[in-house]
Write a structure and sequence with these properties.
With 246 residues, the protein is an alpha/beta fold. The protein has 6 helices and 7 strands; from the N terminus they run E-E-H-E-H-E-H-E-H-E-H-E-H.
């Protein structure tokens, strides 16, 4: 059985609220342009039975001097490797926006290469991999991307040029390669006013798993999850109470 690092969680993982007696670990993947700190409120609100591991991509905050990665597969390979020491307990994955595609690719790697079926895959604010559309966010200016979270405008102005060049490029150029469906259950969370996602694109996630599929719609736009954090935490915590059978 793998055991996690005792003192150093490594460059990829942030544990804002360590829970040594947790039953499951929830790995949170940020949106394009996001950082691990985006999930600090979620980590704070999650019950002690669920330990939140928030992923920190290179090129931001304490990793700002590291080169950015500009493809979903490259990110997935790196995060997958970083998660292997944490597979001693059940892992669940949660990704918003680009993080949803990344969470899906990591789940594929866990099942295929580590014989580990995630306890759950939560995908938020993003279309299914099999429902591609042309996305040119990486080529547009900062105000027209339509997917910026609430935050400090000056900080956003500083980080968006570099993150757009990498994260938005990764999101826009991600191409799904057909393969066996996941065995883990998939829950898709969407905002009913999200301009980047249709109901059909969200429902298409059902075709990517042989497990249970749930589609949950909330009022709001692309960042609906900031307005409904309490409901979303409750939803995930309830689902993670039931272990998944491989």
């Amino acid at each position: 059985m793998h055991t996690p690092p005792a003192a150093d969680d490594g460059p990829w993982i942030r544990r804002f609220h360590p829970c040594p007696d947790s039953r499951v670990r929830l790995v949170c993947l940020p949106h394009a342009g996001g950082s691990a700190g985006f999930y600090l409120p979620l980590s704070r609100a999650m019950p002690g039975t669920v330990e939140v591991l928030s992923v920190q991509y290179p090129g931001r905050q304490d990793r700002r001097t590291e080169p950015l990665l500009d493809s979903v597969p490259a990110l997935a390979d790196q995060v997958f490797g970083a998660l292997l020491p944490w597979t001693g307990r059940p892992l669940a994955l949660f990704g918003h926006g680009m993080g949803a595609s990344l969470a899906f690719e990591i789940a594929r790697r866990l099942e295929r290469e580590a014989d580990t079926v995630p306890a759950a895959l939560f995908v938020s604010g993003h279309r299914a991999p099999s429902a591609p559309r042309r996305d040119t966010a990486h080529a547009r200016d900062d105000d027209s991307t339509g997917t910026r979270p609430p935050g400090d405008e000056e900080v956003l102005r500083m980080i968006l040029p570099s993150t757009r060049a990498a994260d938005y490029h990764a999101a826009a150029t991600y191409a799904w390669e057909p393969g066996p469906p996941l065995r883990s259950p998939v829950t898709c969370l969407v905002g009913d006013g999200d301009p980047k996602l249709t109901a059909e694109e969200a429902a298409a996630w059902a075709g990517h798993t042989d497990g249970a599929f749930t589609l949950k719609t909330f009022p709001g736009g692309h960042f609906f999850l900031t307005q409904h954090s309490t409901e979303i935490v409750q939803l995930m915590a309830e689902q993670l109470e039931t272990p998944v059978r491989a």
